[in-house]
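ok so i was messing around last nite and threw this chain in just to see what happens. nothing serious, just curious
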Amino acid sequence: MSESTVSESSATLMVDLIISLDGYASAEGWPGWWGLEGPEYLAWLEEEGKKDLTMLMGANTYRVMSSMSEQALGDESGFSEEEGASLSGLAAMPKVIFSSTLKEPLAWPNSELVSGDAVEAVKEMKRTRTGTLSTLGSLSLCRSLLTAGLVDRYRLVVFPVITGKTGHERIYDGYPDVALELVDSRTFDGRSQLLEYIPRVIDGPPGSRQQ
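result:
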């Protein structure tokens, strides 16, 4: 049995990221999803939102996403219909926010604040909750959870752009070495690639005696 396998009564932790081909989470001057979200991808996002998910995020992501979610409810939000539905739908989802600076009550509906150590809190959540715990943005949180060996699934949607000049938020900086076992993949709209892995933090090349 894989070390990442968890019992049916416990929660699965998934790091869930969108990424450019060269490893950035966003880029200056580019819209959300690099402007390449198509109907297949948006339909998949809608279906994912119906699952038993609890979203995990840090304070910065909370501030950005809660503001965008509220903006999406307006008549002149500037978002497409599909973008608006995806953003406003986040309000109904259970969310856990890790922050030592935010204070309760949080304005975004269905948001729970955790001010203590995120790694220890997620360990307890994995033991006591069910369904899937899924990160939203929050690159430092994702890195900490992966380094601690808590991540059961590592899922990327790779968009076909290289943002070497304008890219922001390098995703893999500060990561440990990680071996990845591919367990799922698909293509959206003939251009964006979903890759889902079981991750394993390693101290040397996979297959070496250290492993």
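not much to say yet. The longest helix spans residues 59-72.
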